[in-house]
Every structure is written in C-alpha cells, then in structure tokens.
Amino acid sequence: MVKGPGLYTEIGKKARDLLYKDYQGDQKLSVTTYSSTGVAITTTGTNKGDLFVGDVTTQVKNKNFTADIKVATDSSLLTTFTYDEATPGLKAIVSAKVPDQKSGKVELQYLHDYAGICTSVGLTASPIVNFSGVVGNNVLALGTDVSFNTQSGDFKQFNAGFSFTKDDLIAALTLNDKGDKLNASYYHIVNPLSNTVVGAEVTHSFTTQKNAITVGAQHALDPLTTLKARVNNDGVANALIQHQWRPKSFITVSGEVNSRAIEKGAKVGFALALKP
C-alpha cells in the first residue's frame, strides 16, 4: 500500500470533511441492494423544497475493473469505467454524461511513495487538459493543480497547495482561483479514543479583501453516534448527529440557524442511508 503524499485533492481534505461533510439541508433517502452476482444497485431520492430529484446507480465489479452507470430524474446518464492497478500505483478512469457531449474525459492517476499525479483530457476536438501533481511524503506535501483550455489558449485554473501532517495535526495552505484566494486550514485530533476533533478554515480574497472563517468540531457520543457542529463569521451555525444503527447504514439529522436572520427560523435536514 502506497503511503506517499496522495493526490492534490487530499490537501486539506480532512479539514473540509470535518467542516462540510454530511451536513444536510434537505431530506434524502439512499438504499443499496446487492444481487446474487454481486451487482450493487443504489437508489437515491432527495426532496429539495418543492422539487424532488432522484437517481439509480448500478455498479459492477470484476477484479480490478469497475463500471458505474447512473440514471437521474433529469434524463441524464452518467457512465464511469475504472481500471485500478493497470500497473502498480496506476488507475485509469473513463467517464461521460449523456446528453452532454462535452462531458467525456479520460483520467489517469498514479500514486508513488513520494509523488501523486493526476491528469485528464476531455474527449472533444478542443479539450480542457488538467494536470495536478504532488511531491513529498506522508508528512510534507507540495503540489499544484492546473487546467488549460486548448480552444481559447488560456489557463482555466491554476492552484497550488502545501500540507503538513504530524501525529494528531494536519495543516494545509492553498492558493486558488489563479492566485486570488488564499485558504488556510487545520485539523487537530484532541482525543482519539472519543474521536474528538477540532478544525478551522480561513479564506482571504485579494480582490475583495474579504475573509471567510469557519470553525468546527466533532465528538463521538458512543462508538456508533457522532455529533458535529460548525459556525462561520456570517453567524450561520450548523449541527448534526449521525448514528450508525447497523453496519454501513446511517441516519443523520442536521440543523442550521442564522443568527442574523432568526425570524426565518431554523432549517432541518434528514438523511437515511441503508445498506445490507
């Protein structure tokens, strides 16, 4: 198993997951079933106010090959084919969304003890080419993420990042939006026995000279129940409680309150994921 710096998307991921993952403002139900041949079928429905959206995903695995086919209520069809370990550390992914003719792309990921590389090319006449690379190890990592539009000849995005991981602390610094936004985050494990974690994220825009600050924490009430909370500088506070009532099956209840608009009341979200 590779224990290197990982891919660029993993820089700051722990803090992002702590602050944003599983917070739900809608009502969502997800049910996964498995056929006798091992085919996984996941049906998801989400109620967003007066709008209901849903999709059905079928996943087929055969050794290192995985095929995912998702059909959504907007009549779209997303197909993803993944071949893992074509050679040691290499993963190949081909994806496309119908009827979006510009969505097709080929992606290659390579993980090494001292590097992580990901490159993708759109399947169009004038594709968007993306490259991200990270060098370092499981303690220090330095990387960049670049997208180039071959039709216009311009860089669509240019990001750079740095992360430091040591024992119970992960700190990350990224420069995004072609150098306009500076993002700093940290993730600190206070007590591993109770899964008590605190974290924060600060974003500064050089164009608007505005800062955005979000702080959050999580704590395991028991081995199957986790409590999370966060608050930002706009006065918006969120909290959730998630319980694993059977293996791989979770029920999550979350709420949001805006201290600057108390008269609008609180928002409540609910998510239920069922797996056999």
Instruction: Output mean pLDDT.
Output: 94
The helix-strand sequence is HEEEEEEEEEEEEEEEEEEE
Number of domains: 1
Give the CATH H-level superfamily: Porin
Write down how many β-strands occur, each being a DSSP E stretch of 2 or more residues.
19
Distance between the termini: 28 Å
CATH class: Mainly Beta
Structural class: mainly beta
Sheet-strand content, in percent, reads: over 45%
Overall shape: it is globular
CA-atom Rg in angstroms: 21 Å
Q: What is the name of the CATH architecture?
A: Beta Barrel
Output the keywords.
3% helix, mainly beta, 19 strands, Porin, single chain, 19-stranded mixed β-barrel, globular, 276 residues, 65% strand
